[in-house]
Amino acid sequence: MKSTRVFIVSGSLMLLFLAVNTLHAQTDLNTRKALYFTGTKTDSIDLKNDVYVANGATLNLSAELRVSCEQNECVFNVGIIATRTGTGALSTEVVVQVAKSGEKFTKTVEFGANEKFKQVVLPVKLNLGKNQLSITIDPGKTTPETDEINNSFSATVMVNWKRANPGDKN
After folding, report:
1. Contact assessment for residue 61 and residue 165, using Cβ atoms and an 8 Å cutoff
2. Greatest pairwise CA separation for the chain in angstroms
3. C or N terminus of the chain, fewer CB within 10 Å?
């Protein structure tokens, strides 16, 4: 009788462990492969009006969209759309790294139990001229995922003082 209870408890624990691991194994984090420049907005992206740059592309960005500038360095609010599969509350990070300076700008992303998309906006310092940006979600690989390879992308942003042409989106 005692060994039967041990077997039942052990079996139940194993099933619980497998269920939790299966739930995590179905999670995949990603970002929409675009960076949005939101001007002074710090809480959301305007998908119709904010200028953006797509994965592998180059954006000519006017310093007029900056939040602030000091000498040859300007701060821009950069929007990212994080996505995920799976369920349950989840917390992770998004990092924007500027190649030239090596600086990393990080923001925590909090997904509610059934949220699949989340917009985050973070301030990023860019120099006048060419800036190569790398964007990564879950850089520490703290969330077990079905695909770790799709967590990053890069884009180039050319910051200049004069107004960019409206057609220079990417």
Report:
1. no
2. 82
3. N
User: Would strands 73-84 and 34-37 be described as parallel, antiparallel, or unpaired?
Assistant: antiparallel
How many domains does the structure of the chain reveal? 1
Task: Please report whether residue 155 resides in a domain.
Answer: yes
Look at the block and give the residue holding tokens 């004069």.
162
pLDDT by 10-residue block (mean), the chain, 170 residues: 53 46 69 96 96 97 92 95 94 95 95 95 96 96 91 96 50
Sign for the CA dihedral angle at 156, 159, 160, 165 comes to positive
Which is nearest to 109 in space by CA: 81, 75, 69, 88?
81
Is pTM beyond 0.70? Reply is yes
Separation of alpha carbons 28 and 3, rounded Å:
40
Q: Which amino acid is at 169?
A: K
Within a domain: 22: no
Q: How far is CA 119 from the centre of its chain?
A: 9
- The set of residues, in sequence order, having a beta carbon less than 8 Å from that of 55 and lying 6+ positions away, is 33, 34, 153, 154, 155
Residue 64 domain flag = yes
Assign residue 117 the CATH number of its domain: 2.60.40.10
Contact between residue 83 and residue 32 where contact means Cβ atoms under 8 Å apart? yes
